[in-house]
Design goal:
Distance between the termini: 83 Å
Largest sheet: 8 strands, parallel, barrel
Number of strands: 16
Low-confidence stretches: none
CATH architecture of the largest domain: Alpha-Beta Barrel
Radius of gyration: 28 Å
Number of helices: 21
Helix content: 25-40%
Structural class: alpha/beta
């Protein structure tokens, strides 16, 4: 068995959760710990990148001071950085790599196998600057459908110091590792590496298979922190290899930094779950799942449904009739999910009972029960698994005056509907008040107000979020404000009947109408 090398890439792969920002004291503790563990031979400290249009943090760019700090605290390890091949041109290399010359030993290229030959010229230019080169060949679970690139691996001879098998989707099994290694080692005489993801909780099994079948270097991260479902835990790999007497580890030196990252994990929640398992099993994008989970907007049911549609190559899994020829309304009240809805529900009930021509539009299912016995025409906006929330109280609801409304098809997350709602559910024909729109309940509600040609549109219980709200909810708040701003540019009059943190419209009191 080869003497195994281990690359810890916590800051680079883990950056997908923190947007590549890490507390300096945490990083120093991390570097100090890594330096004290000889079994860790390489540390990948982050990306080097050209300036991007969106915000990416410190370890996405790894400025000079980060390079110096890493070298200062990790003199015992080889330092690595990663370049995205698709975003990097030869003319970029002076700017990206010249500052790295005295600090970085290994440059790893993230390469789509279909771009293997294109990446060779870039790698030659990097090699000429004195760096070792690693080719991180992505999408390993899809290689069986694209075997041509295996024949092109011989082009890496004399250039690559490592060729990495990257299980981008977390969907390979130990036997796949063995078979891939046998195939690759017949074609090239280059040290092979393995970078796994843990969607199917096979990160350890796959890595041990890689080591047993001839890999020279494997990746791991502290607590498994990494994109999507995350990676093999460095501490788990070290424990297993120590137990097998392949390496020697002083666990006391490792414990403190593991605890620090475990505390971070409580905030960022990396690790596998049911949606990640599905995405791994069927080689579906972890990027989508990670985005859906991070926004906290979509339920597990919605994410699983979206993944099933992707697996089956379906744009949507339901055909829903379009909502047309609805009677116009002079007055619509959009009911939000804020606490003011419950607080002032008695006033709205009284107002509606006096004015049966008022139409209620529920931007979600949370407070439908509070107004269900009214005779007013009502619409319930549904998104994702909102219909199943209704199902829990469906036996107690009167649907005589109610229709459910979905966003136009095809819906990003597919369509999830309880059987009892199918006959009363319709979709909008389109979204006309905004060009690029988030798939939110408020989007549906505003478009419905346009479809009903209301003279006056009122908000009720759309409270908004204050500055103490967490980052994800603030993102929802920003989206809602964009929707409000776009709706205000239409011909419709918008006011709020309850206090709101959103801006741009007049707020009046529901009690002034009683």
């Amino acid at each position: 068995m080869n003497k195994i090398q281990i690359c810890d890439c916590t800051l680079r792969d883990g950056g997908y959760y923190t947007n590549w920002d890490f507390n300096e004291s945490l990083v120093i503790n991390y570097f100090t710990t890594m330096n004290a563990i000889p079994a860790i031979t390489h540390i990948e400290i982050g990306y080097r990148s050209k300036p991007m249009s969106d915000y990416y943090g410190e370890y996405y760019y790894c400025p000079d001071h980060v390079l110096r700090m890493a070298k200062e605290y990790c003199p015992n390890q080889q330092l690595a950085i990663m370049l995205n091949e698709k975003d990097t041109k030869i003319e970029d290399l002076d700017e990206l790599l010249n500052p790295c010359v005295n600090y970085v030993d290994l440059v790893r290229l993230a390469v789509d196998p279909k771009n293997l030959l294109r990446s060779v010229e870039l790698a030659k230019a990097i090699k000429s600057k004195g760096f070792k080169i690693g080719f991180n060949l992505m999408y390993m679970s899809q290689w069986s459908g694209n075997k041509d690139f295996i024949l092109k691996l011989s082009n890496l001879e004399g250039i690559a110091d490592y060729v990495y098998m990257v299980d981008s989707f977390g969907g390979v099994y130990p036997e796949n590792i063995k078979n891939a290694l046998e195939t690759i080692l017949e074609k090239i005489n280059i040290p092979i590496g393995f970078h796994g993801h843990n969607n199917l909780e096979l990160g350890l099994a796959n890595t041990l298979s890689a080591i047993e079948n001839g890999c020279h270097i494997v990746d791991a991260t502290i607590t498994g922190m990494g994109r999507g479902a995350g990676n093999l835990k460095t501490e788990l790999l070290l424990t297993c290899l120590n137990a097998k007497e392949i390496i020697s580890v002083d666990f006391n030196k490792l414990n403190q930094i593991v605890t620090e990252f475990e505390n971070m994990q409580k905030q960022y929640l990396w690790g596998t779950n049911f949606p990640y398992m599905i995405s791994g099993a069927y080689s579906l994008s972890q990027k989508d799942v990670m985005s859906w989970i991070a926004k906290r907007r979509y339920t597990t049911e919605s994410i699983v449904n979206a993944l099933q549609n992707k697996k089956n190559n379906l744009e949507d899994n339901y055909i829903i009739p379009v909502l047309i020829n609805e009677p116009n309304s002079k007055q619509i009240i959009i009911i939000g999910g804020g606490s003011n809805t419950q607080k002032h529900a008695h006033a709205l009930r009284l107002y509606c009972s006096k004015n049966p021509e008022i139409v209620l539009v529920h931007a979600g299912t949370r407070f439908v029960k509070l107004f269900n016995d009214l005779s007013n025409r009502q619409y319930i906006c549904l998104l994702g698994a909102e219909g199943y929330k209704l199902q829990k109280v469906i036996s107690n609801l009167n649907f005589e005056n109610i229709k459910c409304v979905l966003e136009p098809s095809p819906r990003k997350m597919g369509t999830i509907l309880p059987d009892k709602l199918i006959d009363i559910t319709f979709e909008l024909r389109g979204i006309t008040f905004i060009n690029e729109y988030p798939d939110t309940l408020l989007t549906i509600a505003f478009q419905l107000a346009i479809e009903l040609k209301s003279d006056n549109v009122y908000l009720f219980g759309l409270d908004g979020y204050d500055l103490n709200t967490d980052e994800q909810m603030l993102e929802v708040s920003k989206e809602n404000q964009i929707l409000i701003n776009s709706f205000l540019e239409t011909e419709f009059n918008l006011k709020s009947l309850t206090p709101s943190n959103y801006q741009g419209f007049e707020t009046i009191s529901i009690y002034s109408k009683l």
